[in-house]
Structure formats: structure tokens, C-alpha cells
Amino acid sequence: MTGFIRRKTPASDLYPLARSILFAGLSNSELGIVESMLHTRQYQAGEIVFDEGDDGQALYIVRLGNIAIRTVTAWDTPVAVLGPGNFFGEMALLDQSLRSAQARAQTESTLSALYRGDFERLLEAHSRIASRLALQLARQLGARLRGMLEDGGKRSDVAHHD
Fold first, then answer.
1. pTM
2. What is the β-pairing status of strands 87-88 and 80-82?
3. Contact (Cβ atoms closer than 8 angstroms) between residue 60 and residue 112
4. d(CA 40, CA 50)
5. What is the DSSP secondary-structure string of 29-94?
6. Of 68, 49, 74, whose CA–CA distance to 59 is shortest?
7. pLDDT tens digit string along 87-133?
């Protein structure tokens, strides 16, 4: 969790968690519990969030700015550009596989990270919240898989829009 600091950007300027599909159905108090477990950090344009092949430790929610997702096989064209409310890196919460792409700030950005250990603590202490998050993750992964199948496997869409 090195490099994560309390946000310098005023909270009112950050994308509200309640509007992200990942947190659909959570009450204000439940959102507060989740927010208390997040680690928020600002990134400069061009700064790498993580590299392809890195150990996956956290899911990231874009709160401000844009993040480009790139793979070695399609370096010149991002697989996706994610803006506020989108999330990425969710497989880190579900398994312990390596990152399948690079995430890099395209503009000055603010991200909130939910680390696997924090998600596991959420499962233990607030199982209802964690199960709702897991259900939303499963829905989004299913939608992505269906989209890839409909496109004949040509698309690797990692964007999660609200």
C-alpha cells in the first residue's frame, strides 16, 4: 500500500461512489464503510498505476481523470480508456493472478483502491456489503464475457460504465 495518501483533491470534486455501478444498492452508511477501507491516491499524467505481469493486489475506482489500459499485444491503441466511475483490476479481489494489462494515467487522475486484504476484512465484518460488491463484480465480468463472445473474441473490453 505504499504511495497511497489521503486525497489532496477536495472530496466534492471526486466522482461519488454511489453513482458507480460497482456500489449499486448500497446505503449511505454502507458506502461510508466501503469509503473508510479505500486508499486514495493522485497520479500524474503518464504515471503507471500497474504494469502487465505485476502481482494483482487491488481493484481501482477512477474518481477523477482518465486511465488508459494497454496490453503488450496492442500497445499503440489502448484496450480501454476509463473515466470517473469506472473500475479496473477487479480480478485481484477474486484470484491471485498477475495483471493482464498495464494501467497508466492518461491525465492527472485520482484513484481509490480496495486491496484484497481490505476486501477480505469486509467479507468477515460486513458480509452483506461484500456480497453485494461480489455480485456486481460477477455481473460486470459476465457482461464483458458476453460482449467478447458477441464480437467473436476480437474485443477485450475492460471498461465498466455506470
1. 0.83
2. unpaired
3. yes
4. 15
5. HHHHHHHHH-EEEEE-TT-EEE-TTSBP-EEEEEEES-EEEE-GGG-SS-SEEE-TT-EE-THHHH
6. 49
7. 999 988 888 889 999 999 999 999 999 999 999 999 999 999 999 99
